[in-house]
Amino acid sequence: MHKDLGIGIDVGATKIKCGVVDEQGSILATRTMESWRYTALEDNIKLLISLVKELLEGFDIRRFNSIGAGLPGTVDDARGVVVYTPNLHWNDLVLAPVLEGETGLAVRLVQDTAAAVWGEYLFGAGRGLQNVVCATVGSGIACGIIINGELYGGASHTAGEIGHIHIEDDPIECACGNTGCLEARASGRGLVKLFMRGIERGGHTELTRRLSPDQIDAPAIFAAAGAGDTFCAGVIDEMVRYLAKGLAATAVVLAPDAVIISGGLSSEEELLFKPLTRYFYHYAYRSVRSHVRLELAQLGADAPLIGASALYRARGYQGKR
Ligand SMILES: [Zn+2]
After folding, report:
1. Pick from 221, 68, 70, 233: which is nearest to 142 by CA?
2. Cα 172 to ligand 1 centroid, rounded to whole Å
3. Ligand 1 centroid distance, CA of 152 (Å)
């Protein structure tokens, strides 16, 4: 029987979504759970396994190629271990062998950004290209990398952590413990940091009268800017310029066919993607300007799930167990 299906698992800090995906990248069925539905990690893993089994039972098991999972942190695919996930708190977790034992299918693990770029490369904005970078811009920022049609993880399986490029000598702190990181500016969390710094320096916005400091997040700042708040528009402009610098530098190093922008904030087309395009080509090196396409992602929030389901097609990544 032709194996035309895969299971993709997108593990996020707050929820886990798994789904059955066909060879064209279409999602046929899904299940969702809270990442920490139970207090004990093993109970959450048991729930995840039961959801995957439910999905498998809906189809002829002989149609499945494999299971793939995208995780928000460092994984060791060769051993099937989730090494370190700062926001999810799954650390040194032996996942793939357990899932393999329960389902009888091979299981691959990758960083979620790698899963997302693999999805966009096979089925989305990167289709037909050989060298692709897909930057996920949400509460943080990181990118997945494809070189010559293969996922690239680097020696430490952490290639693409562009959020921690040192981009400025100033005291804005990053979640990683360093200061001056791209992510502390060019992400949702970074935007809030720039906003707070602007207020400390005497900036005025009606947002601080309407919302308490802990209610001010990136969507609120974008909404205010869209409604004509010039302070918020200025802070977003600063964030977008940093993002453009980080991506232009990434494009100089990797010389991809395309840089794809995905993640929660990429839907802000007028306030983020359009000015980002302008700044990106302004900062970019000559060859980047003439060769690199800056594109919006096409798979939306399902890119990691869809990409993870098709990891069996990524031969060179981290090697097989
Ligand atoms: Zn950092």
Report:
1. 70
2. 10
3. 21
Q: Do 5-119+302-313 and 128-298 fold alike per CATH?
A: yes
Tokens 């904030």 label which residue?
Answer: 265
List the beta strands (DSSP E) in 229-310: 258-262, 293-296
Question: What tokens were used for 60?
Answer: 């002829």
Q: What class is the 5-119+302-313 domain?
A: alpha beta
pLDDT digits (tens, 9 = 90+) for 149-195: 999 988 878 899 999 999 999 889 998 899 999 999 999 999 999 99
By the 10 Å C-beta count (0-12 exposed, 13-18 middle, 19+ buried), 197 is classed as middle
Q: Hey, what CATH topology would domain 128-298 get?
A: Nucleotidyltransferase; domain 5 (3.30.420)
User: pTM for the whole thing?
Assistant: 0.93
**Residue 68: strand, helix, or coil:** strand
CA of residue 173 to ligand 1 center, whole Å: 8
Tokens representing 273 are 């993607």
- Locate the domains of the chain by residue range: 5-119+302-313, 128-298
CA of 176 to the centre of ligand 1 (A): 4
Residue range 254-291, pLDDT digits in tens: 999 999 999 989 999 999 999 999 999 999 999 999 99
Q: Report how far ligand 1's centroid is from the alpha carbon of 85 (Å).
A: 14
Per residue in 109-162, pLDDT tens?
999 999 999 999 999 999 999 999 999 999 899 999 999 999 998 887 889 999
For helices 188-200 and 218-226, angle between their N-to-C axes, nearest 10 degrees:
70
Buried b (16+ CB within 10 A) or exposed e, 280-294: beebbeeebeeebeb
Residue indicated by tokens 């037909």: 128
